[in-house]
Write a structure and sequence with these properties.
The chain is α/β, with parallel strands linked by helices. Helix content is 20%, strand content 28%. It has 2 helices and 6 strands, in the order βββαβαββ. A 6-stranded mixed beta sheet has the order 2-6-1-5-3-4, with helices on both faces. β3, α1 and β4 form a beta-alpha-beta unit. The longest helix has 11 residues. The protein is globular. The chain starts with a strand and ends with a strand. The mean pLDDT is 86.
Length: 100
Amino acid sequence: ERVIVALPQHHALARRQKIRWSDLANEKFLLPQQGPGKELEGLLASKLHNTIGAEGIVRQDSSLDRLLSLVSADYGALLMFEGATGVRSDGVVYHEVWDE
């Protein structure tokens, strides 16, 4: 399943046609504590070679709707699997994350 990054619509990366993992190296990420959160965190660590420190990941015990509202308020980017992209939020854009 493809990995999608949700970004605030005004974010510099939101205008790009293609986002690579390396483009996300300096981002702060919101990840759910439940569901796919651990899997996404492991994927993030492997793709960015553990360059994201503990301060770069904010774990939230919140629903996807709430996480997307935090993204739109510019609290961070959200990684999600493609199957979850049916949930939409105003002020948020969605892009597939590509390997180098």
